[in-house]
Design goal:
mainly beta; Methylamine Dehydrogenase, Chain H; 2 domains; 3 helices; 32 strands
C-alpha cells in the first residue's frame, strides 16, 4: 500500500453501517496516485467491509468524487466472469514434513531441540531417540501454531539453567522468541524481543548474562541483556568495515574465554555498514561495490563493540569453508565444529586456530548421511556430536572424535525414509523457463 494512502488513512474517520451506504467524511486528498478511470457496474446496497474500505481509499485520494461515484469503482465479484475469490490451485509444490535446521542438546536434561522453518516450529526429542529403520520418530513436544508467532525461524539455543528455548526469525518476523521447556502446541512465547531484520544465529553467555545475535545483510552482531524483551535496545553492536563480518550466520558466545566466535559466508552488499550503535539502517552509509570475500570464522573479545577488528580469523583455501552455517565450541577439548553446508561436511578446527589452516578432522562422505547441514552441536558429556540436515529429513549423531566417511551412531527421522525435500528457504519469487519447461524458485 502506498505510504501516502497510509498517511491519508491516519487522518480519516470512516463510519460503516451494515446494510447501508457508507458515510464518508471529507478528507484531504492526495492527487496523482489514482488508477485510470474504468467503467464498472454498480454494487448492491449491502457491501462488505473490505469493499467499503476500498471505496474510502479511492475517495480519500481523489479517485472518486463522492460515495455514489465510489459505488461504481469496483465490480460485484459474485457476478463477475473472471476467476476470483477462494480459488484452489491446480497443483502445489510443498514439503509436508518438518525440516531440521538448527539443533541444540541439553545433556543435563537429556533433551534435544531443533528448529523447523518449513512448519514454523520447534521440536524436542529424547536425547537417545533414534529411528530403527525408515520410520519417523515421534517428538516429545512440538511448539507450532499462530499463537507462537514463529515464522521462518533459524538459529536455536537452550538455557538449561532457566530451562528456556531461544529462537530467532530470519527473513520475516524480526523477533527473538523464548519458550519454556514444557511448551507444547499452539502457545504464546514467554518473552518476545524485536531484533534487526535477517537475524540468524543466537547464543547465550551466562557469565555476562547476555545474548548475542548475528544479522546477515547489515553484517553485524547485536548483544542484548539475556532477559531483554519488547523493544529493548541492544547493549552494544559490532559493525563496520574493520570487523571482517560478511553475511554472518552461526555464533557462539564463549563465557569461559570471553570471546565471540562467528561463521561468515563472505557476502558483502553494496552498502558499507557504518560503525554505529544504532540497529536502524543508517542512510549515511557509504555506497560501495559489492564483493564476495572467502568464507571465514572470526573471533572478537566478548565485550567488543563498534568497528573492531577480529583478534583471530580462520580463512583460506586450506580451511575448506563453504557456506559455513551454525557452529559450536567444545570448551573441554578446545575445538570448533562447523556445519559446512556447501560441501555437506562437518569441519572441526582448534579453538585457537587462525589464518589459512586445515581442519583437524572432517566428517564427510556417502556413509555419513550428511546432506546440506545447517546445524551442529557438541554433547561433551556423552562424547557425541549432533548434525541437523537441511537437505533431508534427518538429524545424525556421531562420536565426538569421528572423522572421514563414517556412519552415524544414531539417525532421527522426522519423515518416512526417502521423503524428498523441496529445498525451499522462504521463497520470495517464482519464474517459468519456457525453453526447459521448468519452474525457477529463488530463495
Amino acid at each position: 500500500m502506498s505510504r501516502r494512502i497510509l498517511v491519508s488513512l491516519a487522518g480519516a474517520l470512516l463510519v460503516v453501517l451494515a446494510g447501508r451506504q457508507p458515510t464518508l467524511v471529507p478528507l484531504t486528498r492526495t492527487p496523482g496516485i489514482c488508477p485510470k478511470p474504468l467503467t464498472r457496474s454498480p454494487l448492491p446496497e449491502t457491501m462488505a467491509l473490505s469493499e467499503t474500505t476500498l471505496f474510502a481509499l479511492e475517495y480519500m485520494n481523489g479517485c472518486v468524487g463522492d460515495a455514489v461515484a465510489a459505488q461504481q469503482a469496483w465490480p460485484e465479484w459474485q457476478s463477475a466472469t473472471i476467476a476470483g475469490g477462494d480459488v484452489p490451485p491446480t497443483r502445489v509444490v510443498s514439503d509436508p514434513y518438518p525440516t531440521m535446521h538448527s539443533v541444540v542438546v541439553d545433556a543435563e536434561h537429556d533433551r534435544v531441540f531443533m528448529s523447523d522453518p518449513n512448519r514454523h516450529a520447534i521440536w524436542s526429542y529424547p536425547r537417545l531417540a533414534a529411528s530403527k529403520g525408515a520410520e519417523a520418530v515421534t517428538p516429545l513436544t512440538g511448539i507450532r501454531g499462530p499463537s507462537t508467532g514463529m515464522m521462518f525461524i533459524a538459529g536455536v539455543t537452550a538455557d538449561p539453567t532457566a530451562q528456556e528455548i531461544y529462537t530467532v526469525d530470519n527473513d520475516i518476523g524480526d523477533r527473538m522468541m523464548v519458550f519454556p521447556y514444557d511448551a507444547d502446541g499452539n502457545v504464546k512465547p514467554k518473552r518476545v524481543l524485536s531484533v534487526p531484520h535477517q537475524a540468524w544465529g543466537v547464543s547465550i553467555n551466562h557469565a555476562r548474562d547476555e545474548v548475542a545475535i548475528t544479522v546477515e545483510a547489515p553484517r553485524e552482531i547485536v548483544i542484548y541483556k539475556r532477559t531483554a524483551t519488547g523493544s529493548d535496545a541492544p547493549l552494544r553492536i559490532i559493525r563496520g568495515p574493520s570487523t571482517g563480518l560478511g553475511d554472518p550466520h552461526g555464533i557462539f558466545f564463549d563465557g569461559t574465554n570471553n570471546e565471540l566466535i562467528v561463521a561468515n559466508h563472505g557476502n558483502n552488499g553494496g552498502r558499507e555498514p557504518a560503525p554505529s550503535q544504532s540497529v536502524d539502517e543508517d542512510e549515511t552509509d557509504t555506497i560501495v561495490g559489492g564483493r564476495f570475500d572467502p568464507p571465514s570464522i572470526t573471533v572478537y573479545p566478548g565485550d567488543a563493540k563498534g568497528d573492531v577488528a577480529p583478534i583471530r580469523k580462520i580463512q583460506g583455501v586450506k580451511t575448506g569453508l563453504n557456506w559455513p552455517m551454525a557452529l559450536d565450541i567444545d570448551l573441554q577439548h578446545n575445538e570448533i565444529a562447523i556445519a559446512n553446508n556447501g560441501d555437506s561436511s562437518i569441519r572441526i578446527f582448534r579453538r585457537t586456530d587462525g589464518g589459512d589452516v586445515a581442519p583437524v578432522r572432517v566428517i564427510t562422505g556417502a556413509r555419513t548421511g550428511i546432506k546440506g547441514p545447517m546445524g551442529v552441536t557438541f554433547d561433551v558429556k556423552n562424547d557425541e556430536i549432533w548434525v541437523a540436515n537441511y537437505g533431508d529429513h534427518t538429524a545424525l549423531v556421531f562420536s565426538r572424535t569421528a572423522a572421514g566417511n563414517v556412519a552415524p551412531k544414531r539417525v532421527i527421522r522426522n519423515a518416512p525414509g526417502g521423503s524428498p525435500t523441496v529445498g525451499f528457504g522462504n521463497p520470495g519469487a517464482v519464474a517459468y523457463d519456457s525453453k526447459r519447461d521448468e519452474i525457477l524458485v529463488p530463495n
